[in-house]
Every structure is written in C-alpha cells, then in structure tokens.
C-alpha cells in the first residue's frame, strides 16, 4: 500500500511538473508607479494590464501559451525601478518588461534592459527613451516633440508670441521643457520665463505671482504629470490671471479636471483620441479599438479611462501581436515589433521602423480642451 | 518689485506660514506634556482632511469638518492609549521611534482606506476660480479662512491654557510632572488629552488647507518636516513663538521664489532647520539655560 501511494505521488509529480514549470507560460514583467506621485499613470496602467492578461488567458493565451503577469510597484522611484528591472531580468527571467510609467524611471533602466537583452516597452513619453534608439527599447506614448509642436501650432493660430514655461522636476517635465525651449524659435514664439517646481508641490501661488509680473506673457505652458497641474490652474485663476493655460499630454486624466474644478475650464492640451472616442466620426480607424477598450475598462473598474491606461494597452497588445506572429522567441519578437506596420492602438496608428521605436506621427495627437468638466475637441 | 507683487508674495507666505504654525503648535502641545516630538503630527493633518472629504459625501461641509476633527481626536487618543500610555518610564528616544512608527502606520492605513488618489474639500466660500482683491493683490477667499482659523486656534488655545482648570492642569504637567502628580493631577490623562488636542488642531488645519493644496495619503510627511522646523525655530514648547516662526518661514519661502528657482523652496526650510540646530538649538525665542535642563 505504502509503495502504491508513493508511486502515485511520483506519478502526480511527474504529471504536474510540466504544467507548473511548463513551456506553455510566457512571463511578462511590468514596472509601474501604482502608488506615489505618479499613481495617476501607474494605477490605470496596472489595472489595464491585469484586465488584458485575464482576457487573453481566458481565450487560451497566445497560440496556446498562457501569459503570466508580474507587476512591480515602483512608486515612481527610479532607484526602485532599477532594482525591479534587475530582479525581473536576472531572477524572474521575464520575456519582456512593460512600463515603467514615468520617463525618469525608463531612462534609468534603458541600459539595464539593453544589456540584459530584454524587450522594454515603456509607457512613458520622453523622446530620450527612443532617441538615441536602443534595439530593445520601445515606447507607446506619443513623442513629446510632437506634443510641443502641436501646442505651438495652436498658439501660432491664436497669434500668441510670448509665453512662460513651467515644468515639474521629473524626467517627463525636464524632457518636455527641453523640447519646448528647442522648438519655440521655429514657430516664432519667445519663452519669456521658465520655472521648475518640485513634483510634490502643493501650492504655486508665489510662482504665479512672479510670472504675472511679466505683463507681456500671453500664455502659459505647463509640462508635468503630477497633481500640480490642477493646482497651477487653480492658483492662476485665483490670482485673477486670465491668459490661456496649455498643458502637456500629461493632463489626459479626467481626475485632474475634477481636482481643478472650475479652474480647469478652457485648459488646452494635446492628447490621444481615447478621451474623445465617443465624439470621433464613425469611419475613424481608431474608433473601434478606442471604444472597445473604454467600454471594457469602465465596465470593470467603474472609473473613466485615461490615456495612460491606453499606453499600457498598446504596449501589451503590440507585444502579444509580435509573439503571436513569430512565437515566443525574444530576438524574433524584437525584430517583429521593430518592423510592425499599421498597428491600430489607443495612442494612434503605429508604424515602427528600426530607427523609429515609437512609430507614431504628429497626427496621433488631437488638441483637446475642457468644457463643463469634460474633454472635448478644441476648435479654433 | 512692485508693491502688488510684494503683497501677493506676503499673502502667499502668510498662508503657508499659518499652516506651518498650526502643525508646530501640535508638536508643542505634545512636547510640553510628554517631552517628546510626535512625528505623527503631519499624519493627523492628512487624516483630518481625508476624513472630512469622505464625510462630506453624506454631511454638509461644517458638520463634515467637525466630524473629521472628532474622528482624528479619537485616533489621537487611541494612539496614545495603545502605544504610549502603558510604557513604563520610556526613554525619549524610544517614544520618538514609536511616533515615527505610528506615522508610517497611519499613512499606510490611509493608503488602504482612500487609495492613492488626490482629493480636495470644496472651497468654503466661492469656488476654484473666485478671487478677492486685497490691497491690489488677488487671492482666493480660502486664504482668509486659513489665516482666520489659525488666529482663532491660537487665541482659543491661549485662553484654554490660561483660564480653564483642565488647561491649567496640562500646564502644570508640562512645568513639573512630579509636582503635578503630587498635586493630584492624573498626568496620564493629561498626556492622552494633549494627543487629542494636537490631533484635533491638526485635523482642523488639514481641513481648511485642503481646498488649496489638495490632500493625499502621504501629504502629511512634508508638513511634519516644515512644522518641526518651525517648532524648533521658535523654540520647542513655545506656541506664540511657533506662530511667529511659522510666518517667518512661510514669508521667506514665498519671497525666495523671486530670486531662486522654485524647486529650491523646500531646501530653504531644511537649510534653516540645519542652521538652527547647529547655531541655536534652543530656538529663536528659547532659553539656553532652560534647554540645558531638557532630557535631550
């Protein structure tokens, strides 16, 4: 009897082994700022990934291979992102890493992933992530140079010539500020004053007072992803300063509008079309993708979608499509992403090349504004 | 610099300064009765604001604020009863480590209850865009609420400590604990009361400032550092000095923006704290001799 049970146990173990350790699972790591100052980004991103992975596995995975998602919460801390990246590459031996949420973190782990020959599809925006290009590093959000160009085009039409630039002291803020300063002369716009604030800033009224003293300023551009986006809007309107306020694509979360309340009215910013999916014409190529994601996300989490969750959606879908095409071979998948054309995502239509690891053009942005507490297309 | 700009900076500075002063007074109340720095003071501020934001879903704003103050006072009492009261002759260092632990505990609890979102109470008067003109400068009406509340708290506290029997017992406890026990004062209850008072004041400060700064589960830490700086700057235990030091720090911070990049604003507070700790550890208004008699 004893021998029989041990035999059975051995048999069970032999049967179970391939199932648990099996060739049939693909480990995908994700480093996201689920908590902390960038939780507006990391929260929707991680929820999106969880939803997509469950959906995918329920359908049988990618060609029969289940996906195992390992999400690490970096709290937008670059040091944590570095240690998680090393952990995912060396210990977990993941197939690819999605995220991080912020540009600062992504730039810190770009080299680690390149050296570890692990595919990284970042959900952060800064141009430096894909320029200079690293063979293993991709990103799904639109380029900040395109966002800056889109803002300047809008300003030119309004006849705005002199502006002030504010930025948070994050990787995203610094990169955006650099792009704004670089591109402004090309559009005949002069940056009169620049200010950088701490990412945890809770009151900007003193800096608003300082900028207001420059009477020639016709508009303010703020570039950050932190709650200060809402605080700045409030402080400007409370100080009685009525010049137009432009924000970056970091403003694409309705929670910032709620936080700023009435002060958010009239803010102009570039963003992907996810926020105005309902208002798009029916023949728009992105409409089915956008509405599908929006409905699934909102039904499951009872909160409005944001473009940031969309970046994670694109990253996950691009990776899965590449794996589906060439199988779970890292080098082949890398090449497949690099040459992927016409992928319709939430951020736009992606056309990757070996030189362009973002794959989006300036038309992936639409200019939006806030009206009655909602995002609507900006019309001039 | 024009006069209007000066006034605008001054008002911004007074706003920050009032908040720092209220947090510092919270530090002082507990310091006076126990001799320890309660590093969870910033969390009381956060807790007050977050509770009011939740209560506000069911209650009108004034009741929500009152409720939040009551709840936070209860938490303050619980903290004291659970973590401080039963200690037998604790060392100052041990109690300080405990308060740091409590602050982490409260922060994590807030993260679980409210999540990581940023919330704000509605403006007490007007809304996000309303502004009023003061001597050529334009400010939000909420700033008057902040400054007014700070003034009321300071005056009420002074009256409480000077005129009411309980206030006098607390002062006796602060002056000489052994003598207070000999006079029949239950010093343990006085310590609990001081935690409740500090928590309540912190919560009220959190509520009035929430519309301006927004509230988040980890918003207390920064305030605690500023409040501590102010308490040390004025001289630990001296509430009137804390008000002066708070306004001073707030105004320095606000004016610093005109000459230095904004990102250095917080560095100024830390720099002042370091200078004070090196040069005048007993504070601007403190007494060198009295400081020597303290336990640390």
Question: Can you offer a commentary on this structure?
Answer:
The complex is a heterodimer of chains A (380) and B (296). Chain A is α/β, with parallel strands linked by helices. Chain A has 2 domains: 24-142 and 288-361, 3-Layer(aba) Sandwich (Rossmann fold), CATH 3.40.50.2300; 144-271, 3-Layer(aba) Sandwich (Rossmann fold), CATH 3.40.50. Chain A is 43% helix and 18% strand. Chain A is built from 12 helices and 14 strands. Chain A has helices at residues 2-21, 39-58, 78-91, 103-115, 144-158, 171-183, 205-212, 228-238, 254-260, 287-301, 307-326, 330-338, and strands at residues 25-32, 66-73, 96-98, 119-122, 137-139, 162-168, 190-197, 219-223, 245-247, 268-271, 343-344, 349-350, 366-371, 374-377. In chain A, strands 2-1-3-4-5 form a 5-stranded parallel β-sheet, with helices on both faces. The termini of chain A are far apart. Chain B is mainly α. Chain B has a single domain (3-293), classed as ABC transporter involved in vitamin B12 uptake, BtuC, CATH 1.10.3470. Chain B has helices at residues 3-34, 41-55, 61-84, 92-114, 141-163, 165-175, 177-182, 187-213, 220-234, 239-259, 265-279, 288-293, and strands at 132-134, 137-139. In chain B, strands 1-2 form a two-stranded antiparallel ribbon. In chain B, helix 5 runs antiparallel to helix 8. The longest helix of chain B has 32 residues, at 3-34. The radius of gyration of chain B is 19 Å and the shape is globular. The N and C termini of chain B lie far apart (44 Å). The model of chain B has no long low-confidence stretch (mean pLDDT 87). At the A-B interface, helix 2, strand 7, helix 7, helix 8 and helix 9 of A face helix 1, strand 2 and helix 10 of B.
């Amino acid at each position: 009897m004893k021998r029989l049970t041990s035999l059975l146990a051995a048999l069970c173990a032999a049967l179970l082994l391939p199932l648990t350790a099996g060739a049939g699972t693909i480990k995908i790591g994700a480093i996201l700022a689920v908590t902390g100052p960038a939780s507006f980004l990391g929260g929707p991103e991680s929820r999106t990934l969880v939803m997509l992975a469950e959906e995918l596995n329920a359908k049988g995975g990618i060609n029969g291979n289940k996906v195992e998602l390992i999400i690490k919460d970096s709290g937008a801390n670059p040091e944590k992102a570095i240690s998680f990246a090393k952990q995912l590459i060396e210990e977990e031996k993941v197939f690819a890493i999605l995220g991080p949420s912020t540009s600062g973190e992504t730039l810190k782990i770009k080299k680690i992933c390149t050296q570890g020959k692990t595919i990284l599809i970042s959900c952060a925006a800064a141009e430096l992530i894909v320029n200079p290009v690293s063979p293993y590093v991709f990103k799904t959000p639109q380029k900040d140079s395109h966002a800056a160009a889109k803002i300047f085009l809008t300003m030119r039409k309004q006849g705005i010539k002199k502006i002030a630039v504010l930025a948070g002291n994050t990787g995203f803020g610094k990169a955006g500020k650099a792009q704004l300063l670089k591109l402004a002369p090309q559009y005949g716009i002069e940056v009169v004053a620049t200010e950088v604030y701490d990412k945890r800033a809770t009151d900007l009224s003193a800096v608003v007072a300082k900028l207001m003293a420059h009477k020639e300023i016709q508009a303010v551009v703020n570039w950050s992803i932190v709650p200060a986006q809402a605080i700045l809007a409030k402080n400007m309107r409370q100080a009685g300063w009525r010049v137009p306020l432009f924000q970056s694509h970091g403003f694409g979360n309705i929670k910032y509008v709620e936080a700023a309340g009435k002060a958010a009215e009239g803010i102009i910013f570039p963003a992907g079309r996810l926020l105005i999916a309902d208002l798009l014409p029916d023949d728009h190529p992105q409409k089915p993708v956008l509405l599908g994601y929006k409905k699934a996300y909102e039904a499951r989490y009872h909160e409005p979608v944001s473009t940031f969750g969309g970046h994670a959606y694109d990253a996950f879908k691009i990776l899965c499509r590449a794996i589906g095409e060439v199988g779970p071979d890292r080098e082949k998948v890398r090449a497949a992403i690099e040459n992927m054309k016409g992928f319709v995502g939430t951020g736009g239509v992606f056309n990757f090349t070996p030189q362009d690891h973002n794959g989006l053009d300036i038309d992936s942005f639409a200019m939006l504004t806030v009206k009655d507490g909602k995002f609507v297309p900006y019309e001039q | 610099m024009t006069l209007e700009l000066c006034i605008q900076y001054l008002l911004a500075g007074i706003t920050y300064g009032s908040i720092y002063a209220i947090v510092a007074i919270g530090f002082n109340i507990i310091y006076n009765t126990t001799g320890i720095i309660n590093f969870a003071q910033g969390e009381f501020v956060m807790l007050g604001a977050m509770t009011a934001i939740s209560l506000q879903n069911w209650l009108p704003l004034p009741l929500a604020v009152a409720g939040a103050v009551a709840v936070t006072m209860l938490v303050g009492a619980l903290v004291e009863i659970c973590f401080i009261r039963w200690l037998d002759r604790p060392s100052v260092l041990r109690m300080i480590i405990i308060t740091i632990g409590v602050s982490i505990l409260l922060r994590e609890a807030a993260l679980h209850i409210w999540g990581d979102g940023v919330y704000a109470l509605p403006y007490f008067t007007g809304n996000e865009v309303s502004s009023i003109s003061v001597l050529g400068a334009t400010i939000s009406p909420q700033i008057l609420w902040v400054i007014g509340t700070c003034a009321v708290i300071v005056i009420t506290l002074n009256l409480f400590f000077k005129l009411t029997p309980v206030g006098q017992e607390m002062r006796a406890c602060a002056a000489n604990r052994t003598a207070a026990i000999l006079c029949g004062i239950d010093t343990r209850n006085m310590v609990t009361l001081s935690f409740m008072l500090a928590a309540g004041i912190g919560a009220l400060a959190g509520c009035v400032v929430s519309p301006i700064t927004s509230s988040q589960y980890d918003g207390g830490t920064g305030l605690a550092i500023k409040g501590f700086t102010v308490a040390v700057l004025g001289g630990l235990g001296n509430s009137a000095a804390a008000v002066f030091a708070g306004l001073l720090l707030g105004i320095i911070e606000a004016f610093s923006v005109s000459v230095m990049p904004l990102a250095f604003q917080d560095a100024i507070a830390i720099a002042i704290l370091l200078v004070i700790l090196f040069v005048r550890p007993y504070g601007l208004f403190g007494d060198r001799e009295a400081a020597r008699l303290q336990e640390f």
